[in-house]
Amino acid sequence: MYSTILGVAVIASVPIGYFMSISLVTSSFFKSHANKYLSLTIFLITTLTFVEWAGLLNTVVFYSPLVHAIIIQFFDNIRLDFLFAASLYTYFLTQIKHERLDRSSYRWIYFPFLASVLLEVAISFSDYILDIHHSGFDILVFLAKDFLSIVFNIVLIFMARRFIRKANTISDEKKRWLLRLNLLVICIIMSWVLTRMELLTFNTDYTASLLWVLLSLLTWWILYYGIFRLQVLEQKEEIHKYLVSKGTGDVEVKRKVNSTTSSKVISELYQLMEEEELFKDPLLSRADLADRLETSEGYLSQIINQEINSSVIQFVNEYRIEAAKKLLHDPVFNKYSVEAIGLEAGFKSKSAFYSVFKANLGMSPGAFRKLQLSPNSYESIVLAPPKR
């Protein structure tokens, strides 16, 4: 029963993995320089998963010399894991725009894989002359490459983790995602080490199941959270850079303050929202605003309620809604996802954006974007007071 469930999980991840790797380099939505290396990484890890599982089936269920020679032995001997480490390392460095990519010595990280392929070709050719495959030499070579591959993967993945932590060229959200991906790969490598230790010590492969599960999990995780979520974050960064470069990020909200009772706190609050755009911080809290205004949280809530007839969160969200409406109406941003626009406007998540937007305008952000409105119709919606 357990092996059946495991088999279904692994086999299901294989076609999805190949589909993802192809989509990353063919779809205009995902296409980027960094995603080329992610595509190669996914292709390699999917192939490694399939080869490992094919090896188990070939050993336990049936034995086919053709399957063993063509699929298992070939991919085991050329060591795709050398190339996996190099491509994933390159992906991390490309995402953080590390200066190491510009060095000529950087290309040497692909040498272990090339050397492994050349060595396998040389051994295969020599087998016809010296019959070394029957001398135990091939086993020593395989064990040496296995050990070097583990060391190589560990060194590169921890180097990449150190570079990501020190990176100041990416957002905190992207940094967290890259560190999570890095941590999952570390878990896979540790499982790989345990599998090899068990095999050499006890001549069993029980922990191999954990390795296959982790390999499959990595494929599913990248699909669910990695590709789509990271693409949204990258779109958000592109939108932000465009707004900064064009100086079109200013958002104004119709002030509802009674001029005869307007306090200094409220005036400064509007100034913080309109000049510094504090509302774009998804983690902005009432305590943060109170600290910036040098007042207490209670007094801030009280005065916003008295003079604006609103709560702190409603006041902040009104700015976010106006920013989102402006971006959704501008055809320049039509190529970006609705979620990316919501994040740029300051909402913490897609669900929060949709909920607040619909509560204020009575329609979803997607519906708002799709409406083909005349100028008068557009103004009737954009200028309409928010729903309470």
Concise description?
Helices cover 74% and strands 0% of the residues.
List the helices and strands and how they pair.
Blueprint lengths: L1 H25 L6 H28 L4 H14 L1 H16 L15 H20 L6 H30 L5 H31 L5 H39 L17 H12 L10 H8 L3 H12 L3 H18 L8 H8 L4 H12 L3 H6 L4 H8 L6
How many DSSP E strands?
Answer: 0
Structural class: mainly alpha
> What is the global morphology?
elongated
The residue-averaged pLDDT reads 78
Low-pLDDT runs: 58-63
Tally the structural domains: 2
Strand proportion, as a percent range, falls in under 5%
CATH topology of the largest domain: Rhopdopsin 7-helix transmembrane proteins
Distance between the termini: 55 Å
C-alpha Rg (nearest Å): 28 Å
Structure description:
- The relative contact order is 0.06.
- The chain contains 16 helices and no strands.
- It is elongated, with a radius of gyration of 28 Å.
- The protein has 2 domains: 2-243, Rhopdopsin 7-helix transmembrane proteins (Up-down Bundle); 250-382, Orthogonal Bundle (Arc Repressor Mutant, subunit A).
- It is mostly helical.
Which tags fit this structure?
single chain; 388 residues; mainly alpha; Rhopdopsin 7-helix transmembrane proteins; 2 domains; 16 helices; 0% strand; elongated
